[in-house]
Amino acid sequence: MDFDLNKPQRLLKDSAREFLARDCKPERVRELMETDTAHDDKLWQALADQGWTGLRIPEEHGGLGLGLVELAAVMEEMGRACLPGAFLSTLTAAALIEYAGDVQQRGKYLEPIAAGEMKATVALLEDSASWDLNAVKLKATRNGGKFFVTGKKLFVPDADISDLLICVARTGDSLVLLPIQREAGGVSVQAMPSMDGTRKIYELSLEEVSVSEPEVLGADGDVRTALSRSLAVATTALCAEMVGGMQWMLDTAVEYAKTRQQFGRPIGSFQAVQHQCADMLLMTESARSAAYYAAWALTEGDPVATLAVSVAKAYCSDAYREVANRCVQVHGGIGFTWEHDLHLYYKRSKSSETLFGDAIFHRERIARLIVDDNEAI
After folding, report:
1. Whole-number CA gyration radius for the chain
2. What is the mean pLDDT of residues 323-338?
């Protein structure tokens, strides 16, 4: 594969950086953090006007029909700007609808998502907080042509502003995807504490909520494959976003090392500080390679795509946290203060570390994939 972006991809990435530098400044991020939802209708519509809400949605459903490498390029710039709001959760839901929905369902949901008229999220996690699909315990019962569900989902991103909630439930030994309107009867959400104020999470409570059988996603019964594929897309997008955050911290640390004076000279002249910056550069570039390779592998349908996604997430989870630690060390005391924007990225690094599975989760997955391949041979 070509390890560099082609000209259209680079132009897309540059335009994303220019747009976000203008419309998503740190001051605006801080303002949105203090709100209940971290959502801004004006900013969301601006993202839709750029075509990003439909970036990988097929053209027949109003999207741009681009690949994951293009999405990764845009997500990297979103990570650099620490974009708040429901973009990642809506992206995850859109991918799930694309893989699990029939033609009518894809048209019903993907077109308004691409136009920026609908926000969506996936309610997957429960008490165990495990990203393993076998951890889903919430039961859905079928009766009279409808599915009924009562229970709770935890850590649901952006549930309070999402128009559509895709609830993952269990019926017997199978999983079922229930598209639920946010305003439906029996649905309530309650805010949960979050490390990252730019991404709000919620407890979703369902009381005898019903969904008719024709509305259920994944009617062909292959729900696990659809979920796995959509989570792979979302995980890869998150890895690219993490790379953007690492790049911001690297650039900020290097600039600070050039200007901060100590003992009559810039601290960047001290070898200990240089080592910190060199480590940050190594981890950032390695994470970038892993994230973009995963995006390419998924786009091309490479047999090792699943492995590549887990390798990228395992590495990025550790690297983002370590880059954040080193950035704080370079900045010294100012790096601990509320006044410095570094804390936005530090908190984002911790929440992103666990989102879609932490490094331990994905290393175990890598081990299983390798064992399965060896047994097949």
Report:
1. 21
2. 92
